[in-house]
Amino acid sequence: MILKKLDINNFRNFNSISIELDNKNVVFGMNDVGKTNFLYALRFLLDKDIRKNGFMPTDYHRHNTKEKIQITLTVDLSDFYESEDTKKFVSETRDGGVRTSDRGDIFYIRVEGEYNEEEVFGEPIMKWGDNLEDLKDMPFRGTSYSIDNIFKLVYINPLVDLQKVFEKNRRYIFDENSSDKEDKKLIDKINNLTKEVNDQIGNMSIINNFQKDITDEYKKLNNEELSIEIKSEMAINGFFSDLMPYIKRENDDNYYPTSGDGRRKILSYSLFNYINKKKYDNKIVIYLLEEPENNLHRSMQISLSKQLFDDDTYKYLFVSTHSSQILYEMDKAMLIRIHSKEKIECNSYLYKIEPNYKTDKKKLNREFSNALFYENVLLIEGPSERILFEKILDEVNPDYEQQGGYILQVSGTYFKTYIRALKGLDIKVIVKTDNDLRGKKGNIQEYELLGINRCCDLINMDKIENIIMPFNSETKREEKLTQLKSKKKELYKEYESLINQFKQNNIYLSEIDLENDLFSIIGPKMSKYLQKEEHKVVSYLQDRKLFNMVELIEHLTFEDCEAVYEDEKFKCLREMVRFDG
User: Which residues contact 102 (CB under 8 A, 6 or more apart)?
Assistant: First the structure.
């Protein structure tokens, strides 16, 4: 079974959205844009405990109670022969004419809420079927619909309480009726011991004196024939009621309380997983996790990420988060971005790491997931560009990150991977890259237009053919570098119309490279700061790129940074902090 799409109409801050889903979904966005409401739409659809409360006037978009609330989930059942969950679903929907063989494998589940002015209430009505235009009323009994026999929706809020979870499920976890004969003998023995403990407690003078005094005080206020006695809760409610989980470390005989918010939260998740596996093994369990990173250290978040995205426990998952660490192990997950406070918009993109990038999964996710929480993302190639751009922006526009701008360092290999995903989520992407030429192995004269072709690839254009340089085995390195630099300038001028097309797509190609771009604007000052002759400044920066760039930026003034920021060669920086609308 595959979750395919969620349509929400006239519900809370969603007027009308249609969002693609998958079985693992990450919901993200800035604060107060509707992530919780998105999850609530699913809860109204699949959680009878939420549904039974009905729709309040505030559940209707802008209190528009004249229109129905409609929340529709589309599922794909085409994997019938491979999926036990699909077989389970089909068996529950076989009767009642809701599935017809001529309508394929797509099925719809909908909750509607038509507002009743007299009752001041919108009653949820459940429908389903394989014909969206003719959905059938879903059978129900009391507050339960047929869909509740299929799905169990497990919502875990950010402030999940271990003690409450344990106490709520204690009777189920320790069901005495399921005890074997040996267990029952032990239970009887423990009950006798607890009775003996209470008898011994009753013999204590401090207890006896208190019982007598408190009974006398009670009778002064209410003269009844009774006495007050002190008893252990364990003897009255059974010893199971007194059990709580503790931590016991290896090679340590001491027991430690499950203190620490992070440890308690991880144990709460473990407890949910244990209970759901035992209690709902006959149902399809869908997890809704809201901001699970709360109270978890970075290392714990990464550990949880591995379980969320690699463990089959969370086969069907919706997780809302502000943390890049929660996305650390992400692969084949639908990213759902909710944005724009004035007019709520949603975009989704199926993020799937290509097989040839699997070894770099952590690196890809670490860099990419940070960028997800911004509006404008500038993609650059290396660390020297990053520290330079951060210095310039810290001087000219120090609030650029708070305003939604982000610099993301990637290798040229990953440009397209990131662009495709970020644009799919309606995040503005800007690219700054060098006009590289790369020699072909085994041919001293043939060179690939690496930089230009990289940009062509980003806008799905055909690559330009390789060029031939007049080199031979006698050509010295310095002469090669000079001729290659001159050739880059020629190519930049020759392909001017193409480079302008790149710019229209927010792709900015250097005439030569970053260092030469920078030198063309503040060259004399760079020579002074680095104490190098002007003709040696660029080669000095390129010799130890990061180390020498750090040396340079320590000297850059506000005026230097402003000059670079305003120059056309670094328009990418202005574009990153420009927000359309």
Answer: none
